[in-house]
Amino acid sequence: MAISRASAAGLAVAATVFACVPAAAASPEVIHIPATQTTCFPKHICFYRDAGFLGGGIAVRAGFDLNNLAGSLDMDNQMTSWRNASTERYCWHPDPHFAGLARVMRAESEVALVAADENDIASAMSSC
Ligand SMILES: [Ca+2]
User: Fold this and answer.
1) What phi and psi values does residue 34 have, to the nearest 5 degrees?
2) How far is the CA of 34 from the centre of ligand 1 (A)?
3) pLDDT at 107
4) d(CA 78, CA 92)
5) How does pLDDT run across 89-125, given as a tens digit for each residue?
6) What is the pLDDT of residues 22-58, one digit of tens each?
7) Residues with CB under 5 A from ligand 1 (ion)
8) How many CB atoms lie within 10 A of CB 12?
């Protein structure tokens, strides 16, 4: 069935209305950080693959936990630096489902290079 010009105009209006939803309500819980970006997003916790916030990674919106960094997140056992750009205390965990010795990431803090025995082992993160 062909879409008439009137229907297409209606769709355009609908799309405009949808775009007026506040960005916070529509933003995803996890954002992939491109390799060219070293900053974190406000109110997010960011994991980077390399030291100095390099190599890309993931940003998690404060208020959300990730029980496993494997799969489509592609961040399991890869984190080497992090930024907590939120006002919440977060922890990262060496094992999935928040297991293992939790390491604290204080609110509004960052570590450009984790300790050698903490490198490339993070498998989960949560508020803590
Ligand atoms: Ca691990």
Assistant:
1) -70, 155
2) 22
3) 98
4) 12
5) 999 999 999 999 999 999 999 999 999 999 999 999 9
6) 444 456 899 999 999 999 999 999 999 999 999 999 9
7) 77, 94, 121, 123
8) 10
Residues composing the chain: 128
Q: In angstroms, rounded to a whole number, what is the distance separating the alpha carbons of residues 37 and 57?
A: 9
CA 57/CA 79 separation, integer angstroms: 8
In CATH terms, is domain 24-127 a member of 1.25.40.530?
Answer: no
Give the Å distance between the CA of 82 and the centre of ligand 1.
16
At 62-89, the pLDDT tens digits run 999 999 999 999 999 999 999 999 999 9
Ligand 1 center to 97 CA (angstroms): 10
Where along the chain do its domains lie? 24-127
What's CA 1's distance to the chain center, in Å?
Answer: 41
Q: Are 31 and 46 in contact (CB under 8 A)?
A: no
pTM for this model (two decimals): 0.79
21 alpha carbon – ligand 1 mean position (Å): 37
